[in-house]
Amino acid sequence: MIEERLASIVAQPGKSLNPLFLRTRLKEVLQDEVLAFVYSHPQYRSYLFTGGTCLRKLYGLPRMSEDLDFDVPGQPDPVSFAASIREYVTRVLQYRHMTTRVSGNGTSVTLVFPVLRQLGLVHSSADTPNLLLRCDVATEPTGIYGTQVSPLSTAQAMFFVRAYDLPTLFGSKLAAFLGRDYTRGSSQAQPFKGRDVFDLIWFLQKAQQQEWKLQPLWPRVLALLGADSAVSVVRRAADKAASLDTEQIAADLRPFVETEQALEVFTTNVGEVLPAQLKALEEVLVTR
Asked: Does the pTM exceed 0.85?
């Protein structure tokens, strides 16, 4: 069943997708199945959906996303989560070849689907036969958040997802842009993710369109960053935005944006757009 749905994506006519983007498209099928599992399971339906995939599926973020991120209002049990999802995939999806890996720090469970060879996507010994879907499961860090329950419809079903609301996600994204480094493979840590840059521009655009009625959940932002004011946070973000490396942004975003043309347009304009958006937000905060 799951193999046929993946094969139908590979076989779609008329499009020549870059291999990284195609793999992300395939992961979307797996994401839907995992979300259906989580939010129909009594032990996991209280998990708070967050991250880029949440933004795409519930709020219309116009890029792909590869992982599933959940915050847990309590202590997560990744070993039990992995065992439960293996049982679900075997029983409901009737797929018996999936395995799972739990990270050493217990914050993520990776689902391993050895399907790429039969899909014709393994071309050399250097290509992995495995399609991987990582589920990050973390303790909710602040106790400061808003939630909403939203219906999510897939090709197979409709179910209800408990997720952070937009102000909470906006705040978390702003804090992530400022607060985390990102390592690509074995390379040195980079001071940002290209995905964080893309998402932050999207949030700021939505806020401007709503005449700044949409704001980050500032108490959460301040708690996550240990900052003392919203204005100081925005000024820090503006300083960081002034030194963006567009090549790093493009390399990080390539698996999540469909065409090179769209990627080029974004990276060409990001250095002008993001600082202007942050300046506009600062002016709103100062005058309120």
From this structure: yes
